[in-house]
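Moderator note: this is an archived Q&A kept for reference. The question asked for a predicted structure of one protein chain; the sequence and the answer are reproduced below.
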Amino acid sequence: MYADDTHPDMKGLNKAQKDELCDSLFKIHQKGEVQIIPQNLHYSRFELLKRYLQAYRFNYYIRPLPDREGSKIHSRLTLALQSSKVKDVLHLLAEMVRDNPDIIRGKIWSPNLLGTKTDTFIFYSRVANIGEARKLAEQLNGISTIKQALIDHTPMGMKSLAPGVSYSEFSSIIPVGGILHSSHGHIRSYILASAIAKWAEQKNRTERELNRYIAQEFRMCGYDPKDCALLSKESNGARTQ
Protein backbone atom coordinates (compact mmCIF):
# COMPACT_ATOMS: atom_id res chain seq x y z
CA MET A 1 0.00 0.00 0.00
CA TYR A 2 2.83 2.41 0.88
CA ALA A 3 4.78 1.86 -2.35
CA ASP A 4 1.68 2.13 -4.55
CA ASP A 5 0.46 5.44 -3.09
CA THR A 6 1.24 7.69 -6.06
CA HIS A 7 0.45 11.21 -7.26
CA PRO A 8 -1.92 11.48 -10.28
CA ASP A 9 0.83 13.25 -12.25
CA MET A 10 3.23 10.31 -11.84
CA LYS A 11 3.00 8.30 -15.06
CA GLY A 12 4.82 5.28 -16.43
CA LEU A 13 7.24 5.39 -19.37
CA ASN A 14 6.72 4.25 -22.94
CA LYS A 15 9.34 2.12 -24.71
CA ALA A 16 11.20 5.07 -26.23
CA GLN A 17 11.39 6.77 -22.82
CA LYS A 18 12.63 3.56 -21.20
CA ASP A 19 15.38 3.36 -23.81
CA GLU A 20 16.35 6.98 -23.13
CA LEU A 21 16.54 6.30 -19.39
CA CYS A 22 18.74 3.23 -19.94
CA ASP A 23 20.99 5.30 -22.21
CA SER A 24 21.30 7.97 -19.50
CA LEU A 25 22.26 5.34 -16.92
CA PHE A 26 24.77 3.81 -19.31
CA LYS A 27 26.44 7.17 -20.06
CA ILE A 28 26.74 7.96 -16.35
CA HIS A 29 28.28 4.53 -15.74
CA GLN A 30 30.75 4.99 -18.62
CA LYS A 31 32.10 8.26 -17.17
CA GLY A 32 33.53 6.24 -14.26
CA GLU A 33 32.75 8.80 -11.54
CA VAL A 34 30.09 6.57 -9.95
CA GLN A 35 29.05 2.97 -10.55
CA ILE A 36 25.60 1.95 -11.76
CA ILE A 37 24.61 -1.41 -10.29
CA PRO A 38 21.41 -3.25 -11.19
CA GLN A 39 19.76 -4.24 -7.91
CA ASN A 40 20.39 -7.93 -7.16
CA LEU A 41 22.76 -8.22 -10.12
CA HIS A 42 26.50 -7.53 -10.30
CA TYR A 43 27.31 -4.24 -12.00
CA SER A 44 29.82 -5.79 -14.41
CA ARG A 45 26.89 -7.10 -16.46
CA PHE A 46 25.42 -3.62 -16.95
CA GLU A 47 26.96 -3.25 -20.43
CA LEU A 48 25.19 -6.44 -21.55
CA LEU A 49 21.90 -5.42 -20.00
CA LYS A 50 21.78 -2.24 -22.05
CA ARG A 51 21.13 -4.28 -25.19
CA TYR A 52 18.14 -6.23 -23.93
CA LEU A 53 14.59 -5.55 -22.81
CA GLN A 54 15.46 -7.22 -19.49
CA ALA A 55 17.30 -4.00 -18.59
CA TYR A 56 13.86 -2.50 -18.01
CA ARG A 57 13.22 -4.94 -15.16
CA PHE A 58 15.92 -3.83 -12.73
CA ASN A 59 16.05 -1.07 -10.16
CA TYR A 60 19.44 0.62 -10.27
CA TYR A 61 21.80 1.74 -7.53
CA ILE A 62 24.11 4.70 -8.09
CA ARG A 63 27.12 4.16 -5.84
CA PRO A 64 30.15 6.38 -5.21
CA LEU A 65 33.70 5.33 -6.01
CA PRO A 66 35.08 4.04 -3.76
CA ASP A 67 32.13 2.61 -1.82
CA ARG A 68 31.19 4.33 1.44
CA GLU A 69 30.48 2.33 4.56
CA GLY A 70 26.88 2.42 5.77
CA SER A 71 25.36 2.38 9.25
CA LYS A 72 22.46 0.58 10.92
CA ILE A 73 21.19 3.99 12.04
CA HIS A 74 20.63 5.96 8.86
CA SER A 75 18.14 7.98 6.83
CA ARG A 76 16.74 8.43 3.37
CA LEU A 77 15.65 11.36 1.23
CA THR A 78 13.16 10.50 -1.51
CA LEU A 79 12.21 12.45 -4.62
CA ALA A 80 8.92 12.36 -6.51
CA LEU A 81 9.77 13.30 -10.09
CA GLN A 82 7.97 13.53 -13.41
CA SER A 83 9.03 10.28 -15.07
CA SER A 84 9.61 11.85 -18.48
CA LYS A 85 12.12 14.32 -16.96
CA VAL A 86 14.18 11.82 -14.95
CA LYS A 87 16.66 11.28 -17.79
CA ASP A 88 17.39 15.04 -17.77
CA VAL A 89 18.24 15.21 -14.05
CA LEU A 90 19.81 11.81 -13.45
CA HIS A 91 23.37 13.02 -14.06
CA LEU A 92 22.84 15.81 -11.51
CA LEU A 93 21.60 13.33 -8.91
CA ALA A 94 24.59 11.09 -9.65
CA GLU A 95 26.92 14.05 -9.03
CA MET A 96 25.30 14.57 -5.61
CA VAL A 97 25.93 10.91 -4.77
CA ARG A 98 29.54 11.39 -5.90
CA ASP A 99 30.14 14.60 -3.95
CA ASN A 100 28.21 14.21 -0.68
CA PRO A 101 30.28 12.13 1.79
CA ASP A 102 27.20 11.17 3.83
CA ILE A 103 25.38 9.57 0.88
CA ILE A 104 26.22 5.88 0.56
CA ARG A 105 24.14 5.34 -2.60
CA GLY A 106 21.19 6.49 -4.66
CA LYS A 107 18.48 4.32 -6.18
CA ILE A 108 16.11 4.72 -9.09
CA TRP A 109 13.14 2.50 -9.85
CA SER A 110 13.34 0.21 -12.87
CA PRO A 111 12.20 1.68 -16.22
CA ASN A 112 9.19 -0.66 -16.05
CA LEU A 113 8.12 0.62 -12.60
CA LEU A 114 9.16 4.26 -12.81
CA GLY A 115 6.09 6.45 -12.30
CA THR A 116 4.03 3.66 -10.74
CA LYS A 117 5.53 3.87 -7.23
CA THR A 118 5.27 6.44 -4.44
CA ASP A 119 8.77 7.81 -5.08
CA THR A 120 11.15 8.01 -8.03
CA PHE A 121 14.65 8.38 -6.62
CA ILE A 122 16.15 7.71 -3.18
CA PHE A 123 19.28 9.07 -1.50
CA TYR A 124 20.49 6.75 1.28
CA SER A 125 22.49 8.57 3.97
CA ARG A 126 24.67 6.96 6.63
CA VAL A 127 23.56 9.53 9.21
CA ALA A 128 20.16 10.44 10.67
CA ASN A 129 20.49 14.20 10.58
CA ILE A 130 17.47 16.22 9.50
CA GLY A 131 19.58 19.39 9.41
CA GLU A 132 21.84 17.90 6.73
CA ALA A 133 18.78 16.56 4.91
CA ARG A 134 17.30 20.07 4.78
CA LYS A 135 20.54 21.34 3.25
CA LEU A 136 20.31 18.66 0.56
CA ALA A 137 16.66 19.57 -0.07
CA GLU A 138 17.68 23.22 -0.49
CA GLN A 139 20.44 22.17 -2.88
CA LEU A 140 17.95 20.20 -4.96
CA ASN A 141 15.52 23.12 -5.09
CA GLY A 142 18.35 25.43 -6.10
CA ILE A 143 18.82 23.56 -9.38
CA SER A 144 16.06 24.69 -11.74
CA THR A 145 16.07 21.50 -13.85
CA ILE A 146 15.45 19.38 -10.75
CA LYS A 147 12.96 21.79 -9.17
CA GLN A 148 10.86 21.84 -12.35
CA ALA A 149 10.83 18.02 -12.44
CA LEU A 150 9.62 17.57 -8.84
CA ILE A 151 6.00 16.66 -8.09
CA ASP A 152 4.41 17.78 -4.81
CA HIS A 153 3.92 14.34 -3.27
CA THR A 154 4.91 12.92 0.13
CA PRO A 155 4.97 9.13 0.68
CA MET A 156 2.89 7.92 3.62
CA GLY A 157 4.63 8.32 6.97
CA MET A 158 7.49 10.41 5.64
CA LYS A 159 8.30 14.03 6.48
CA SER A 160 8.05 16.63 3.71
CA LEU A 161 11.09 18.93 3.50
CA ALA A 162 10.02 20.57 0.23
CA PRO A 163 7.49 19.81 -2.53
CA GLY A 164 8.47 16.38 -3.84
CA VAL A 165 11.30 15.93 -1.31
CA SER A 166 10.63 13.68 1.70
CA TYR A 167 12.68 12.36 4.60
CA SER A 168 12.70 9.56 7.15
CA GLU A 169 15.13 8.03 9.65
CA PHE A 170 15.94 4.44 10.57
CA SER A 171 16.71 2.93 13.96
CA SER A 172 18.84 -0.18 14.50
CA ILE A 173 16.06 -1.60 16.73
CA ILE A 174 13.46 -3.83 15.12
CA PRO A 175 10.29 -5.40 16.57
CA VAL A 176 9.95 -9.11 17.26
CA GLY A 177 9.20 -10.91 13.99
CA GLY A 178 10.65 -8.14 11.82
CA ILE A 179 13.97 -7.88 10.02
CA LEU A 180 16.44 -5.03 9.60
CA HIS A 181 15.35 -3.32 6.39
CA SER A 182 16.23 -0.17 4.44
CA SER A 183 12.63 0.23 3.23
CA HIS A 184 10.66 2.98 5.01
CA GLY A 185 7.39 1.15 4.36
CA HIS A 186 8.59 -2.30 5.39
CA ILE A 187 10.12 -1.31 8.72
CA ARG A 188 7.06 0.74 9.72
CA SER A 189 4.76 -2.12 8.71
CA TYR A 190 6.72 -4.51 10.98
CA ILE A 191 6.25 -2.11 13.89
CA LEU A 192 2.53 -1.72 13.21
CA ALA A 193 2.06 -5.49 12.86
CA SER A 194 3.83 -6.09 16.18
CA ALA A 195 1.68 -3.47 17.92
CA ILE A 196 -1.55 -4.88 16.49
CA ALA A 197 -0.59 -8.43 17.49
CA LYS A 198 0.01 -7.33 21.10
CA TRP A 199 -3.24 -5.34 21.16
CA ALA A 200 -5.22 -8.30 19.77
CA GLU A 201 -4.18 -10.43 22.77
CA GLN A 202 -5.78 -7.99 25.23
CA LYS A 203 -9.34 -7.99 26.52
CA ASN A 204 -9.68 -4.21 26.21
CA ARG A 205 -9.40 -3.92 22.41
CA THR A 206 -10.54 -0.33 21.99
CA GLU A 207 -9.26 2.13 19.41
CA ARG A 208 -7.65 4.13 22.19
CA GLU A 209 -5.75 1.07 23.39
CA LEU A 210 -4.66 0.27 19.84
CA ASN A 211 -3.24 3.77 19.45
CA ARG A 212 -1.44 3.36 22.77
CA TYR A 213 0.14 0.07 21.65
CA ILE A 214 1.22 1.61 18.33
CA ALA A 215 2.83 4.60 20.06
CA GLN A 216 4.53 2.29 22.56
CA GLU A 217 5.92 0.03 19.83
CA PHE A 218 7.32 2.95 17.82
CA ARG A 219 8.93 4.33 20.99
CA MET A 220 10.45 0.93 21.89
CA CYS A 221 11.96 0.71 18.41
CA GLY A 222 13.58 4.14 18.75
CA TYR A 223 11.09 6.30 16.85
CA ASP A 224 9.18 9.42 17.82
CA PRO A 225 5.57 8.20 18.30
CA LYS A 226 4.27 11.66 17.37
CA ASP A 227 6.25 11.71 14.11
CA CYS A 228 7.23 8.19 13.10
CA ALA A 229 9.41 9.49 10.26
CA LEU A 230 11.96 10.56 12.88
CA LEU A 231 13.97 8.87 15.61
CA SER A 232 13.10 9.84 19.16
CA LYS A 233 15.43 12.15 21.06
CA GLU A 234 15.68 9.46 23.76
CA SER A 235 16.92 6.71 21.44
CA ASN A 236 20.40 6.47 22.99
CA GLY A 237 22.15 8.85 20.62
CA ALA A 238 20.71 7.21 17.53
CA ARG A 239 19.98 10.63 16.16
CA THR A 240 22.97 12.82 15.34
CA GLN A 241 21.11 16.11 15.57
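Archived answer notes: The beta strands are 34-38, 60-64, 74-79, 103-108, 121-125, 159-162, 165-170, 223-224, 227-231.
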